[in-house]
Amino acid sequence: MALIPREVFFGNPERIAPRISPDGRHLAWLAPDEGVLNVWVAPTDAPDQARPVTKDRHRGIRVHGWAHNSRHLVYIQDKDGDENWHLYAVDLDSGEARDLTPIEGVAAQIIGGSADHPDELLVAINDREPSLHDPHRVSLVTGERTRLLENPGFVGWLSDRELNIRFGAAMQPDGSFVWMRYTGEGWEPFASYPSEDALSSGLSGFDEHGRLLALDSRGRETAALVVLEDPADPQTVAAHERADIQGIAQHPGTHAVQWVYADAERRERILLDDSVAGDLAALEAISAGDLEVVSRTHDDRHWVVAHLVDNGSTRYHLWNRDTRTASFLFTARPSLDELELARMHPLTLSARDGLPLVAYLSLPPGRDVDGRPPEPLPMVLVVHGGPWARDSWGYNAEHQWLANRGYAVLSVNFRGSTGLGKTLLNAGDLEWAGKMHDDLLDAVDWAVAEGVADPDKVAIFGGSYGGYAALVGLTFTPTRFACAVDIVGPSNLQSLIENIPPYWAPLRATFDIRVGNIDTEEGRALLRDRSPLHRVDAIERPLLIAQGANDPRVTQVESDQIVAAMQDKGIPVTYALFPDEGHGFARPENRFAFYALTESFLAKHLGGTSLPLGGFEGSSLTVPAGAEHLAGLADLLETP
Q: Please, which contacts does 128-136 make with residues 24 or more away whose CB atoms are closer than 8 Å?
């Protein structure tokens, strides 16, 4: 099997994230300009006339969208991964780009906008108090900001079509949430969600009748979409037996709910409005994959849709509802089109206590016989971050890259993962390095028993919580994995919580309830016991650590301290540090460098194939420790 260059998997897409303006006249998308992702705009009827309207030359723009006035494009950008997001607006008439939150050290959060006030946005800004975001009304035309109120301690907001703040979410010390309603004179409790429902429930918006919509798992296993006119009597609109409702599609003009999504092993749509049934059926017929409607005009006559597949690039079309015709726009990564790529097989495993675990397996093309290889392969267990997140089916660059190098690749939604019901989610409480790790071990046991994995050649790999899981793998079960790759993973749970960003402080109860309470003796003992830093002596297998120096969530301290502890004990470790990155690697040059290191590391310890080590041009990569453990790395780092 031919080895595919790393740049194909981890370089910038050619074009991605198309959005149609509310008036339907223009399309915007992200594409490289001088090698950096920027926002491009074209007339809807002439996509070939696209031009860049932003001029980022460093980190690239990753999130963008249209204002309701169809004149302004908005996007967010931070500085080298510090997550102090500034909100920018580009005026298409003048070409001017304006920083709407030009304040050092703040992290802007968009609350929402309204077609009734198309020249304004509601934006929460923590300029008054770093731990609290106050809602502001911001003019896209003048840049003027008006503070609407001082945040009394809320972690979320809900506004109406008049851009009035209607509700605020307050987390309680016991991990529950109370949504408070603004009366015009003050706040009063409206709806309460206990801790067991806190991460799967909450207010979401209003329907065409002005009725309040919410996601609600109270009294049920999965979160349903409900109408919440009476908070004590939610009226179910849609629900799924195995998965939470996660995506809600509303008519962009009337706000009528038309369909919802849930994701068990694969995405499923629950249709609520027959008027769009024909459109969705026609669109599903034009291309393989899971259909996603990604953007719509205000009058709902034109849609931008995506077809998501597991073994190729996302394909985008423009759908005209009047003529019932689909016009092909582009493929996000056309370089994938002619390649032999892996399939992603969804499956459900059973944990040792019987809890069902949704998982995804990818195998090297040519060695995939109905989801099993002809003989056991070296395997990489890829663990998702969060941990309050999940893995899903679809194209996954890491799965494809690893499968192309000859590995089986397995990802599992262990307990603590979201979207699959609250039993799985809440079973992860206080189980970091406990039953959450057992689930990962059970997934490896399944792969060995099924003839997928060679038990002596399994690596554990992940970022954020997944990086922590990699460290746990080597410290709590030191002979279970052949090697580990930790990307921005916490090594000491107590210092992780002590160093959370200030605006996470109102959410501290989540850590207290689900990870461990640093304010109690019992909690501190648990956090210490579950911290890989305090079990460094147990490490027997090779470890690669990668860290962004500006990470505000898992600070550099987390990687520095475990590397130092290993060096003090004479335990080998390779440490890659990127000075211009944060919680992950945004710049392609840094991604190329990281995956080059990882590829050589895995090939050395698992026996897979590898392209030559290199591709560091333009990267900020430094290796403070352990360059000698990868052949040729020290020489490459010294080459100017």
A: 130/105, 130/502, 130/503, 131/502, 131/503, 131/505, 131/506, 132/503, 132/506, 133/107, 133/109, 133/503, 135/111, 135/159, 135/165
CA distance 189 to 176: 13
For residue range 30-40, list pLDDT tens digits in order: 999 999 999 99
Q: Which element (helix H / strand E) includes 262?
A: strand 257-263
How many residues are given for the chain? 640
Stated as kind and residue range, the H or E segment containing 511 is: helix 508-514
User: How far apart (Å, rounded) are the C-alpha atoms in residues 557 and 631?
Assistant: 27
How far, in Å, CA of 625 to CA of 574, rounded? Answer: 5
Mean pLDDT of the chain: 96
SS (H, E, C) 574-626: EEEEECCCECECCCHHHHHHHHHHHHHHHHHHHCCCCCCCCCCCCCCCEEEEC
d(CA 365, CA 503): 45
Please give the positions annotated as active site. 464, 551, 583
Q: Partners of 578 in the beta sheet?
A: 548
Domains of the chain: residue spans and CATH: 344-612 (3.40.50.1820)
Q: Rounded distance, CA 97 to CA 74, Å?
A: 9
Nearest C-alpha neighbor of 396 from the set 361, 371, 370, 429: 361
pLDDT at 206 over 80: yes
pLDDT in tens, 359-417: 999 999 999 999 999 999 999 999 999 999 999 999 999 999 999 999 999 999 999 99
And the tokens for 212?
Answer: 């309040």
Crossing angle between the packed helical segments 588-606 and 397-404, to the nearest 10 degrees: 40
User: Directed axis angle between helix 465-476 and helix 435-449, to 10°?
Assistant: 80
Residue indicated by tokens 């099993």: 372
Residue 278 in tokens: 């024909």
Phi-psi region of 117 (alpha: psi -120 to 50; beta: other; left: phi over 0): beta
User: Over the stretch 247-280, which tens digit does the pLDDT of each residue have?
Assistant: 999 999 999 999 999 999 999 999 999 999 999 9
